[in-house]
Amino acid sequence: MDIDETIKGRRSIRKYQNRKIPDSVIKNLLGLATYAPSSMNGQPWHFMVVRAEETKKQLVQIKNKYCPAEKQMYQADFLQRASVIIVVCVDKQNSYDREVENGVLATANLMLGAYSRGLGSVYLSAYRNGEPAISDEIRKALGIPEHLHPITIVPLGYPDEIPEPKMIRALEDMISYETFGRK
Ligand SMILES: Cc1cc2nc3c(=O)[nH]c(=O)nc-3n(C[C@H](O)[C@H](O)[C@H](O)COP(=O)(O)O)c2cc1C
After folding, report:
1. What is the pLDDT of residues 52-109, one digit of tens each?
2. Are 172 and 182 in contact, with CB atoms under 8 Å apart?
3. Ligand 1 centroid – CA 122 distance (Å)
4. Measured between alpha carbons, how far is 167 from 134 in angstroms, rounded to an integer?
5. Per-residue pLDDT tens digits for 106-138
6. Contact 107/123 with Cβ under 8 angstroms?
7. What residues does 157 pair with on adjacent strands?
8. Ligand 1 centroid vs 179 CA: distance in angstroms?
9. Domain ranges (residues) in the chain
10. Could you tell me the CA-to-CA distances from 30 to 24, 108, 114 in Å, in that order?
């Protein structure tokens, strides 16, 4: 699959077949994630690979507990049925004040790599500014040490749904040439 096809074809998948993703595939995807750019080339990543049903359940509970009122329709129960959940963490010490960016870029690689291999994924945040309890609880559930910051939660599985086509905003509305508003 070429890169354009991969970028355009990736969609959030929240229903998964009851089929295990082999460890070798996961390892391969995490390898791709490490080719992401990182601030000062710090490569601060640590990937938690979660397969245990009980741990998945804890992640569901944490995400649902902190789900804001306006997002109640986006409950995280579907995480339970993922073949594997990756929690992308970054080491504060090698992040050069760019924990979030470092974590998110690796996550993008991971998700695009997953799609190009026929796997479905979704991006979920593992932190919220001003609400450290979310990351703390995730850290506690997974035994993650204090210096690592959980940034994203990415369930992976063989897709069991075809999402509705997505409208993409007109490109021209999102571009200015030289000065703002110049088309
Ligand atoms: C920062 C961020 C947070 C997101 N949080 C959630 C979430 O909590 N639950 C969820 O199901 N999807 C979440 N998503 C996925 C978006 O809903 C999804 O990417 C968006 O609707 C576009 O659809 P697509 O991924 O199929 O292109 C999140 C995506 C981003 C970028």
Report:
1. 999 999 999 999 999 888 888 889 999 999 999 999 999 999 999 999 999 999 999 9
2. no
3. 6
4. 32
5. 999 999 999 999 999 999 999 999 999 999 999
6. yes
7. 120
8. 31
9. 3-174
10. 10, 11, 10
Amino acid at 123: Y
pLDDT at position 141:
98
Q: Which of 6, 12, 111 to mutate to test the pocket of ligand 1 (most atoms within 8 A of CB)?
A: 12
pLDDT in tens, 4-42: 999 999 999 999 999 999 999 999 999 999 999 999 999
Pocket around ligand 1 at a 6 A CB cut-off = 11-12, 14, 74, 122-125, 163, 166
Residue nearest to atom 14 of ligand 1 (CA): 123
Under CATH, what is the fold of the domain 3-174?
Answer: NADH Oxidase (3.40.109)
Amino acid (one-letter) located at 134? I
Residue nearest to atom 15 of ligand 1 (CA): 123
